[in-house]
Write a structure and sequence with these properties.
This protein has one domain (3-165). The chain contains 10 helices and no strands. It is mainly alpha-helical. The longest helix is centred in the C-terminal third of the chain and has 19 residues, at 143-161.
């Protein structure tokens, strides 16, 4: 049985196995539309207005200012606890077709870092994020400041990319 199925249907707590489970807290039907956006797939046509669908947060915003994608990939693997010992059924998260979903989830994690730390939400996840950013990038300033700066850059691009979906008042 897939771990995510067991988590949803039986109430198991798998947050120590992967940070993924910090986000996975709903039934599949509830997660369906959000999952489509996170995976970068086009939304379903039913009930949709004509035009481009939702746009997820993207790491491209910080890659464009010189953040190395190779180091971001390493940080993603550390934060989401993916390594060579990852179970075969989850290997798509490590190198395969689900990797873009991890990029979006990681960009979203960075984008909301300052807000979540201020509100005391998901503190263990965000402290882990800070620790891994410090270890991977070795910045000259505190990791929290780096993440706040990156988060504001990602948010600005995210809001720009979503202008098409916000009707004018």
């Amino acid at each position: 049985m897939p771990a995510e199925h067991a988590t949803v249907t039986t109430g198991h707590d798998n947050t120590r196995k992967s940070a993924f489970f910090e986000y996975f807290d709903g039934t599949r039907p509830l997660a369906f539309l959000g999952g489509l956006v996170l995976a970068g797939w086009q939304p379903p046509s039913w009930g949709q207005l004509v035009g481009k669908g939702p746009t997820p947060a993207s790491l491209a915003a910080i890659v464009n200012i010189g953040v190395e994608m190779q180091l971001l990939e390493k940080a993603i693997n550390l934060v989401f606890r993916l390594n060579d010992n990852t179970k075969p059924e989850s290997i798509r998260l490590l190198t395969g077709s689900l990797r873009p979903a991890l990029h979006i989830a990681f960009a979203t994690l960075i984008m909301h870092h300052a807000d979540r730390m201020r509100e005391g939400e998901m503190v263990s996840v965000h402290l882990s994020l800070e620790q891994h950013i410090l270890g991977v990038f070795k910045p000259s300033e505190p990791a929290r400041q780096v993440l706040i700066r990156w988060g504001s850059i990602i948010r600005a691009q995210f809001e720009q990319d979503r202008l098409h979906s916000n009707p004018e008042p």
